[in-house]
């Protein structure tokens, strides 16, 4: 019997792929409508994404097969959804990020900031969180975590070495890292000596206590890196894939939205939320792993500057190994800064951008997009040489001259570009388009009409909680891909601004803090050892709650004037059959 169960478990993915479509077949057979056929496809893909019986990207191809065969859309129409402007933005942004990684510019920035902030326990955690969050705004969360964790553990290894007399003299012993130890012994006067004093800890007990403190600090530092990578990614449109899913879904479902979600508008909304969440996370992790003795955590005890020098040694050595900044790093830095400036100034909304001035259509709208800018900078990186132009000798062949490689080469792109995400994005856009063409969106919106009596703030809060739980066991990209079209239909049915429910869903999909399998950064941190699932769940549970509260604050405060969330927009009204009033019921500005 045990062998039978083991066999079923070993072949579970094959069984799921085979039996799941058959199990769901009664839906399109008993209800032979386009809406039911589209619902069949969406439910099938949702379950395959949740179980990961097939690779996520392979499941994303199902609309190309299902929609034409079910008479929902033609194959050519479905295929067009797989390479939209949002996909181009992702490809261009990733190319620039790959150039930054190739020339170790991100590592130089990280080490430099850590040298500036210092290595006192609380400040060290804050330093790693700030650096990781900043880098994950521009390069992938996974790559950021994979780079920062080895640096963190190298610093910990140096700090946890047993000090010798020479170490103390040379400053290689930092008392600030003896976390939450017994209070320093005070001198006893003659009267106290006559009284019975409690026994002091034996050296073995002190050693055990110190090892526990070092383990807690190691756990806290590992978690702070992976958590801040997920938190930092929400700040920019290209920082994490769910943000791009939102932009693509809004443009697909509401084609007349006037580019309401662009790099500048998203940054203005998400960056303050990221900063608040990051700082609150730092406070929580400090309390959880370092304790409440903030004076000790900040290393404010009596100690000389020489005693802190050893803590900088490993960071300074790693920074020194990078050598002086070279031409390639300078060129990549310049192009990267140029990219960010062009993104912010293309169509900012509060003043006329260069896109409106130089490349506008007959209506004055910019014909360029954020994807245009990203691809432009990426192409330039393929052109600019990595060394000051000039001919160099080819290694091993002094007689043959060789030009230096470009800042970015196609070999690097082929090896490191996550093409599966491009396909996954396209699959989500195809689902949204199929829901609209089949009438499923309208049907679903009609069924959600009773929610009109629920306060909008309560709806947003419940959505945050639901998505934060769902994303713990499902890919954040799949989560947003499945829920955003449903929320768009709901917003049209109850006449609230679509972004009022779609923005919280997108941000909450990045609150995957509790399980190692929730996100790649969590898995990387877990693989370094020293962490149990209970440690991550205990820290992540409170972070989920903090994240939901911060998102609720953001959507009910500064986002309202930014996106005009107090009224139902005309671009969303044009997609509905029923007419919503020009003014929506006032959105409460207080948290539920």
TrEMBL record:
Membrane-spanning intervals of the chain: 12-31, 43-67, 87-106, 113-139, 263-285, 327-346, 366-384, 454-470, 482-501, 507-529, 541-560
Localization (cell): Membrane
Biased composition (Basic and acidic residues): 176-195
InterPro entries: SLC13A/DASS
UniProt keywords, alphabetically: Ion transport, Membrane, Sodium, Sodium transport, Transmembrane, Transmembrane helix, Transport
Predominant place of localization: membrane
Entry membrane topology: Multi-pass membrane protein
GO biological process: cellular response to lithium ion
Annotated gene: SLC13A2
Lineage: Eukaryota, Metazoa, Chordata, Craniata, Vertebrata
One Gene Ontology CC term in the entry: apical plasma membrane
Chain spans, region Disordered: 176-205
Name the record gives this protein: Solute carrier family 13 member 2
Molecular function as annotated in GO: alpha-ketoglutarate transmembrane transporter activity; fumarate transmembrane transporter activity; sodium:dicarboxylate symporter activity; succinate transmembrane transporter activity
Family stated for the protein in its record: Belongs to the SLC13A/DASS transporter (TC 2.A.47) family. NADC subfamily.
């Amino acid at each position: 019997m045990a062998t039978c169960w083991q066999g079923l478990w070993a072949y579970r993915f094959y069984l799921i792929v085979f039996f799941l479509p058959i199990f769901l077949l009664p839906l399109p057979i008993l209800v032979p409508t386009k809406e039911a056929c589209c619902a069949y496809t969406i439910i099938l893909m949702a379950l395959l994404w949740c179980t990961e019986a097939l690779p996520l990207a392979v499941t994303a191809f199902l609309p190309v097969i299902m929609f034409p065969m079910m008479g929902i859309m033609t194959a050519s129409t479905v295929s067009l959804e797989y390479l939209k402007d949002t996909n181009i933005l992702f490809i261009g942004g990733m190319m620039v990020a790959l150039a930054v990684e190739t020339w170790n510019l991100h590592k130089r920035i990280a080490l430099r900031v850590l040298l500036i902030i210092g290595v006192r326990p609380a400040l060290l955690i804050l330093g790693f969180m700030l650096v990781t969050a900043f880098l994950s705004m521009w390069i992938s969360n996974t790559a950021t975590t994979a780079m920062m964790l080895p640096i963190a553990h190298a610093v910990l290894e140096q700090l946890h070495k047993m000090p010798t007399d020479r170490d103390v003299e040379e400053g290689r012993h930092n008392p600030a890292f003896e976390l939450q130890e017994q209070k320093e012994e005070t001198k006893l006067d003659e009267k106290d000596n006559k009284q019975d004093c409690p026994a002091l800890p034996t050296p073995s007990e002190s050693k055990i206590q110190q090892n526990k403190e070092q383990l807690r600090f190691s756990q806290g530092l590992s978690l702070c890196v992976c958590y801040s990578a997920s938190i930092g990614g929400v700040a920019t449109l290209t920082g994490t894939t769910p943000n791009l899913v939102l932009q693509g879904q809004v443009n697909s479902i509401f084609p007349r939205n006037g580019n309401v979600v662009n790099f500048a508008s998203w940054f203005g909304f998400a960056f303050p939320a990221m900063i608040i969440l990051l700082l609150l996370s730092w406070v929580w992790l400090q309390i959880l792993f370092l304790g409440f003795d903030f004076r000790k955590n900040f290393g404010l005890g009596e100690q000389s500057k020489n005693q802190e020098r050893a803590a900088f040694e490993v960071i300074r050595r790693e920074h020194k190994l990078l050598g002086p900044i070279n031409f390639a790093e300078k060129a990549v830095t310049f192009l990267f800064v140029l990219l960010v400036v062009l993104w912010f100034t293309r169509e900012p909304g509060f003043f006329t951008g260069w896109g409106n001035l130089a490349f506008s259509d007959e209506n004055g709208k910019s014909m360029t997009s954020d994807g245009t800018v990203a691809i432009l900078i990426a192409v330039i990186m393929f052109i600019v040489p990595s060394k000051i132009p000039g001919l160099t000798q080819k290694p091993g062949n002094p007689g043959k001259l060789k030009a230096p490689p470009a800042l970015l080469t196609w070999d690097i792109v082929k090896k490191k570009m996550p093409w599966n995400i491009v396909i996954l994005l396209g699959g989500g856009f195809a689902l949204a388009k199929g829901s609209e063409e089949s009438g499923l969106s309208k049907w679903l919106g009609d069924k959600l009409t009773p929610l009109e009596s629920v306060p909008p703030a309560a709806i947003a809060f419940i959505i945050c909680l639901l998505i934060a739980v769902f994303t713990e066991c499902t890919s954040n990209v799949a989560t947003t891909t499945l829920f955003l079209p449903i929320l768009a239909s709901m917003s049209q049915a109850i006449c609230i601004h679509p972004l009022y429910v779609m923005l919280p869903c997108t941000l909450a999909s990045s609150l995957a803090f509790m399980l190692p399998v929730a996100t790649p950064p969590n898995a990387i941190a877990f693989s370094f050892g020293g962490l149990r699932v209970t440690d991550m769940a205990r820290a992540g549970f409170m972070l989920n709650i903090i994240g939901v509260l911060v998102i609720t604050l953001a959507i009910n405060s500064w986002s309202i004037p930014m996106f005009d969330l107090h009224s139902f927009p005309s671009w969303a009204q044009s997609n509905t059959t029923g007419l919503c009033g020009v003014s929506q019921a006032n959105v409460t500005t207080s948290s539920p």
